[in-house]
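Dear colleague,

As promised, here are the two records you asked about, laid out in our usual form so they can be pasted straight into your sheet.

NAME FIELD: protein one
SEQUENCE, THEN STRUCTURE:
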Amino acid sequence: MAEIAEFAFSYDKVVGLLLPKGRRARVEVSDHDFYVKFGRGFESRFPLTSVRQIGHMPAEWVNATRGVHGGHGAWLVNGSRRGLVRLILDPPAMARTGAGGLWISVEVRELRLSLEDPDGLIQRVRAATGVS
């Protein structure tokens, strides 16, 4: 069985009190799969072979928004502006997003995440895929 590396989201102090944490909000990477869950706001699992590019993302690309935001294939899932990582996917992945128990399926071509250990995630994905 493949080892699964788990990564925690980063949070601003006040906002962190309102957003999901722990097992309800995490990123998991195995040798073959990428999984992200952010409470009832976002969930996706896709093969690592879909990752075409991964790297750090400047904090300036994110305004004061925290939570789950997106559309047209680009999704931001964050609790802060710290530790931002950007993934480009091809073929696109599918995700579920929603609120109040209602889920809708959406396409994900670009995924932006705020993580406590962005370098660890980038290294893990690059080691498994060979992408830059």
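NAME FIELD: protein two
SEQUENCE, THEN STRUCTURE:
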Amino acid sequence: MREVALEQLPPQVRELFDAAQRERVLVLCDGEPFAVVYGIRFKDQEDFQLATDPEFWRMIEERRREQATIPLEQVKAELFGSGE
């Protein structure tokens, strides 16, 4: 992935990225959607990589389909003992 320092960009482009921290910005080319810019100021690189990784989301979907669950009382008993 290519990286660019914000300080290297012209002021107008920096303003665009500042706005993207508050809301998504749709970039048009000849009146047609071209790109979406959204801010990730409060995320780290790992958060960004996971959010854009199709394999990660496939794994999440698979886990959500699994029916195996543990009752809350069992979790409490394992964490805190049976209370006896």
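A couple of things worth noting about protein two: The chain has one domain: 6-67. The two ends are 56 Å apart (CA to CA).

Best,
R.
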